[in-house]
Amino acid sequence: MSEIIVADGVTKRFRQPKRYSGLAGAIKGLISREFTEVRAVEDISFTIRAGEAVGYLGPNGAGKSTMIKMMTGILVPTGGALSVLGRTPHEERMVNAREIGVVFGQRSQLWWDLPVHDSFELHRRIYDVPEARYRENLAHLTRMLGMESYLDRAVRQLSLGQRMRAEMAMALLHDPRILFLDEPTIGLDVVAKDAVRKFLTEVNRERGVTIILTTHDLQDIEEICPRLIMVDDGKLLFDGELKRLRTALGARRRLKLDFATDPGPVSLTSARLVSDEGASKHFLIENEETSLVDVLAELGGGHGLKDVSLEEPDIEEVIRTFYQQRPALVPQ
Length: 332
Ligand SMILES: Nc1ncnc2c1ncn2[C@@H]1O[C@H](COP(=O)(O)OP(=O)(O)OP(=O)(O)O)[C@@H](O)[C@H]1O
Prior knowledge:
The chain is an alpha/beta fold and 332 residues long. It contains 11 helices and 13 strands.
């Protein structure tokens, strides 16, 4: 796989007029020429290869949208070097736009008063998509996203879930190689979120489109993105597989053993008992190396075991632990 996005020490700072409190302060603010500097993105480096699906995660104000805007050429970095498909995005914004698709969850790219279909047609003309290719893509995306019933409706009449599907379809009509999504599931209900996630996974795995998405929703990462980039305060905190993060944090798996009848106290060296409900006993497996087979071997056959369930630590717990342990994990 070739590298298609390379960020090398990318930095973005915004200058904002200094604000003062109170009425006198407001007036002073109007005439003052003082500025404060916001460090939105600080010295971020990463490489993304063709075909990857990467989740860009971080709390409010961490610098996620700013980074996406720089990769799409909307914003110009203050420092560092950024290359997308071999180009500097803001310098070749129009050429770049033909090869990328962009979806902003909070801002529509569709024409509000026009039928969805007309927005698509305008998009075809702007991007100069060959007629036959356009028809083929439209038919395929309409089927995949179940949009048949509302292609003729005005965008303002659509539900948020329907609009989101139309946004994603439009972003893909010109066969982009990279799809950037900023909070694609924000405000959607569970069913609509599920549809968006399934679609994006398919687009990535079957059409080979590279996906970069920002989100607050950890489930998005879990289902779509094997790789996770975490930022806070503009700085990069973690870049790697979600699996690696779990391992690095020593995230614990939960084990539940159900017995036919209460076997009395059960103690194991491979797992720590955390709650005993008689016939149901809950353990934590703290060592990554320990497998279920090890636990069962230690347990032996004599307890009348009826059922076993093993739960991987959920992503919310992993991220929470990450932020708690942050000073120890991140070289300052
Ligand atoms: N145009 C701008 N002018 C001044 N400051 C800005 C501008 N855009 C973003 N910022 C500031 O840069 C920082 C990063 O903002 P950004 O929108 O990238 O964060 P985010 O991680 O996307 O946040 P959220 O999850 O809330 O959308 C914030 O402190 C924000 O206030």
